[in-house]
């Protein structure tokens, strides 16, 4: 039985902050006690004085090795989960994809194959349903039973992942019966494609135009429609990567009515803007993702939503494409730029900076980055907290260390950083995954294959 003792740190969970020693036994948290009050012996002692001891991050939205836009996102499960660990994230939930004409099962099997034996940290899967038909609906029941309890549907990307309103309603009805959670990419893709075609025909082809055609109103309209469909179906709804103030307003209205409607935003919408998309010499391509970055004014609504709990989760939507050779596929036509940003390594630090800057409290940082994603997707209290019986997924965080984000020093397999040159206060020092050190005093000590597939129960966040 391996025992690790973490002494003298400030243990921060979503519920409380307390100075405590933490005893870890056989991969789980065994006990917490007032510092120095117990005579615990241990194989390994970690001095956490002047540090925070926080739950490992739960990033509920990643895309490793995702086929998209004629290429694949550039992080494998091996490189992406290692980078996640460097950034204090100890669980990811990635999206397995059903291909058109294929089954959910075949898609899920393919994602298990990509991930099994390669991950540095624990992982689960959501399922992207891109072909909702009678057999898909039946398969949903089986997947929920075995721990894939959430399904993403796209109102965007016609011809690729798009589902029409009838398909979305059917999937929601099924989820209403089997306990699954429907996640929606809420943008009116049909209308957006008209605007894309018109813009390109006029010769407006720069990355900046990506942000102009994917209008905030079309995100808000789709968000409203998804909410109404979920209401008709009697199912809960989780809207992914919310970026527009108008979409937050729709979520707020629905939540004020008492509906089980939830929203996720991502660091890129909180820290970046259309100014980045407008960077010259095609540099704006680095910031092309959907929903798109918005004018800076939207950020206040997102921060407000996070404080008021109209937005509950911050995930990364990590979907990296190298600038050279991948983003460049869209030179001369912004609509061919593969959509997605890297960020799995940066989320915990950027959100700690939000604590430093006064946007959110320390406990809210842990709530939106660890506890609520675990609850939302059926992993709590195994993940997302530090309590007796929980997995010992623990980060020793130095709140005073200074760092500068750069592609030169990050660990994601991508040739740029969306946050290049940004100065942050706070840095991950040591990371335990089920009690095993994966980062030790800023050295990688993990291994591919340590990370285990983690089946999930159904949403634990409903009214
Ligand atoms: N978000 C993005 O631009 N790429 C990943 C796919 C998605 O989440 O829509
Ligand atoms: Zn999406
Ligand atoms: Zn995504």
From TrEMBL:
PTM-bearing positions, type N6-carboxylysine: 152
Instruction: Give a single Pfam family match.
Output: Amidohydro_1
State one molecular function term (GO): metal ion binding
Q: What is this protein called?
A: Putative dihydropyrimidinase
Give the family this protein belongs to, as stated in its UniProt record.
Belongs to the metallo-dependent hydrolases superfamily. Hydantoinase/dihydropyrimidinase family.
Task: Please spell out the taxonomic lineage of the organism that makes this protein.
Answer: Bacteria, Bacillati, Actinomycetota, Actinomycetes, Kitasatosporales
Q: Gene3D superfamilies recorded for this chain?
A: Metal-dependent hydrolases, Urease, subunit C, domain 1
User: What NCBIfam families does its record include?
Assistant: D-hydantoinase (TIGR02033)
């Amino acid at each position: 039985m391996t025992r690790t003792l973490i002494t003298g740190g400030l243990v921060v969970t979503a519920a409380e902050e307390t100075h405590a020693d933490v005893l870890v036994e056989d991969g789980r948290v065994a006990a917490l006690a007032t510092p120095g009050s117990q005579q615990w012996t241990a194989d390994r002692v970690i001095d956490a004085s002047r540090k925070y001891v926080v739950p490992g991050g739960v990033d509920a939205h990643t895309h490793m090795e995702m086929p998209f836009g004629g290429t694949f996102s550039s992080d494998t499960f091996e490189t992406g989960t290692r980078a996640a660990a460097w950034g204090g994230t100890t669980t990811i939930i990635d999206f397995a994809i059903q291909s058109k004409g294929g089954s959910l099962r075949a898609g899920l099997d393919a994602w298990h194959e990509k991930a099994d034996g390669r991950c540095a940290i624990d992982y689960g899967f959501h399922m992207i349903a891109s072909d909702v038909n009678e057999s898909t609906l039946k398969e949903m029941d089986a997947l929920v039973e075995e721990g894939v309890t959430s399904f993403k549907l796209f109102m965007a990307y016609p011809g690729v992942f798009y589902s029409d309103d009838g398909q979305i309603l059917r999937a929601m009805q099924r989820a209403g019966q089997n306990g699954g959670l429907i996640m929606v990419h809420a943008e009116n893709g049909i209308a957006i494609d008209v605007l894309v075609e018109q813009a390109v025909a006029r010769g407006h082809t720069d990355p900046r135009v990506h942000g102009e055609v994917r209008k905030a109103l079309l995100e808000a309209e789709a968000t409203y429609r998804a909410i109404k469909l979920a209401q008709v179906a009697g199912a809960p709804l989780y809207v992914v990567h919310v970026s527009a103030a108008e979409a937050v307003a729709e979520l707020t209205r629905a939540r004020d009515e008492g509906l089980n409607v939830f929203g996720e935003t991502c660091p890129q919408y909180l820290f970046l803007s259309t100014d980045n998309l407008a960077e010259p010499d095609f540099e704006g391509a680095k910031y092309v993702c959907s929903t798109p970055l918005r004018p800076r004014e939207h950020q206040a609504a997102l921060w407000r939503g996070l404080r008021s709990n109209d937005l509950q989760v911050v995930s990364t939507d990590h979907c990296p494409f190298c600038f050279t050779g991948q983003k460049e596929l869209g030179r001369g036509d912004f609509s061919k730029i593969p959509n997605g940003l890297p960020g799995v390594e940066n989320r915990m630090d950027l959100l700690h900076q939000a604590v430093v800057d006064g946007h959110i409290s320390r406990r809210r940082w842990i709530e939106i980055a660890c506890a609520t994603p675990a609850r939302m997707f059926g992993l709590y209290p195994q993940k997302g907290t530090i309590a007796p019986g929980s997995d010992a997924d623990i980060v020793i965080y130095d709140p005073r260390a200074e760092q500068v984000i750069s592609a030169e020093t990050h660990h994601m397999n991508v040739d740029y950083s969306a946050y290049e040159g940004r100065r942050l206060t706070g840095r991950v020092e040591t990371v335990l995954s089920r009690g095993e050190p994966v980062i030790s005093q800023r050295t990688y000590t993990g291994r591919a294959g340590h990370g285990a597939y983690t089946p999930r129960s159904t949403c634990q966040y409903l009214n």
